[in-house]
Amino acid sequence: MQHSRSLTSGPTGAQLLYLAIPLLLGNIFQQLYNFAAAIIVGRYVGEAAFAAIGVGGTVMNLFIFILTGCSIGVSIIIASMFGKGDFHGLRKECFLALIFGGAFTIFVSAVSVYFLPSVLRAIHTPAEIFGATGEYLRIILGGLLATFYYNLGASALRAVGNTRYALVFLVTAVILNAALTFVLVAWFGFGIAGAAWATVFSQGLSAVLCMVYIRKKLPFMVPAREDMKYDGALLKKTALFASLSAMHQSSLYLGKFLVQGAVNLLGTASIAAYTATGRIEGFSLAVGESSSDAISVFVAQNMGAGDRKRALKGFLTGLTSLVCLSFFISTLLYITAKPGVALFVGEGQREAVTQGVEYMRYLAFFYVFSYIGSCYVGFYRGTGRINVPFIGTTIQISVRVILSYLLAPVMGLKAVSLATGLGWMAIVTFQTVLFRFIRKKERIEEEAVPVG
Question: What percent of the chain shows pLDDT beyond 90?
Fold first, then answer.
């Protein structure tokens, strides 16, 4: 099983780093996924098509977050079974995820396409790009099955410690998407539909590559006839983990969507500044998200193996490392705030640059809380407390949205930065109180066990 990696023994820090680096690179490439496509469409089709991709991306990302969340939930179960050595149960989980997850995705795909016109009207899509946005999204949403199977395959690879090939297939998808978009849009003149078909095809090919790789290199994960059975208890657990993870991922996105509404009330300069800082923030937060995923896999494998102490050690090692790293990243973001914002909005947009710099420098003081929160998310997911990240995120988003709308009219864009930081502090407070309660309960249980 050289293409998988057991995390139940060996140096904790080195194993976390082995997991985290490919995950970090993957998160960065994920943000680049539609970046090249948008530039190509804007250059060869026009401003209206570029705007249509922007609006379409807002809707598309919500569904991607839902499917990604479902895959994360499944991966926690796979990682736990892998750590336990329960390969029959692991294969049953893969089978159930493939069949029932695929059926759920087809249902979501059909419903989303049917209600697409209503959704576009609800978000006030301008009439001049309504048709193009609908054309783009009908293809994207119709191809959600490819997106789900790619995310499921990549998450399964990460669950057994193989983050390297999950990254390889993601990079393949990103490069292929950019190349196909250029060919279909610039050479063949397929317009915005060409960009959509390129996205679906690249996701589909990456899904196939994932599945073929698993079949050839990780046969212990491939369901045999005796594994292809309905298991009501396991399906119920899978549905619970997948749904809670999906709600966690989508609530993060919905929260950002609501905050955007508060920013839109501040004017064009604030919108431009917030868009620029959002791009920078996405890359900096990728560090926390990658560490969260690495801790999640590590903790899940060791909890499956029954080694609760090693699982806790992995979490604390990751937490300590990320807290130290957060001070470096915060300092870097504070120092480079002006050139970073100007890179996206241009030196000539002085008001936007000024607001963006204020936003970034306020937020720089709070990144340590964001990274601590990410570590806690990995820990709670890995221990099977899959509802905790959702509850914590709901608290964070509530604080962030309410304070943004209350303070932005008075303080401007820096109020949104302050609200974001206070939201991170709120979620860390909740997570820490709960963690202390869990540790206290575990100590009492350990002391109650008779010696000998």
Answer: 49
Rounded mean pLDDT, 23-42: 75
Alpha helices in 182-307, H assignment, sequence order = 191-217, 232-264, 268-304
N-to-C CA span, the chain:
36
From the number of C-beta atoms within 10 Å of its C-beta (0-12, 13-18, 19+), residue 288 rates as buried
The CA-based angle 297-280-366, given to 5 degrees, is 70
| Polymer length in residues for the chain | 452
Eight-class DSSP state of 205: H
- Average pLDDT of the residues of the chain: 87
**4, 64, 127, 215 from 220: Cα distances, Å:** 10, 28, 53, 9
Average pLDDT over residues 211-232: 91
How far is residue 102's CA from residue 108's CA, in Å, rounded to a whole number? 10
pLDDT of res. 2: 58
Give the mean pLDDT of 146-171.
90
Q: How many helices (H) and strands (E) does the chain have?
A: 18, 0
What distances in angstroms separate CA 314 from CA 12, 76, 84, 378, 389, one per listed residue? 6, 16, 17, 10, 18
> DSSP string of 316-377?
HHHHHHHHHHHHHHHHHHHHTHHHHHHHHH-TT-HHHHHHHHHHHHHHHTTHHHHHHHHHHH
Cα distance between residue 25 and residue 281, in whole Å:
15
Model confidence, pTM: 0.86
Return the residue matching tokens 């790619």.
150
pLDDT in tens, 222-264: 999 898 988 999 999 999 999 988 888 888 777 877 887 787 7
8 Å CB contact between 363 and 281: yes
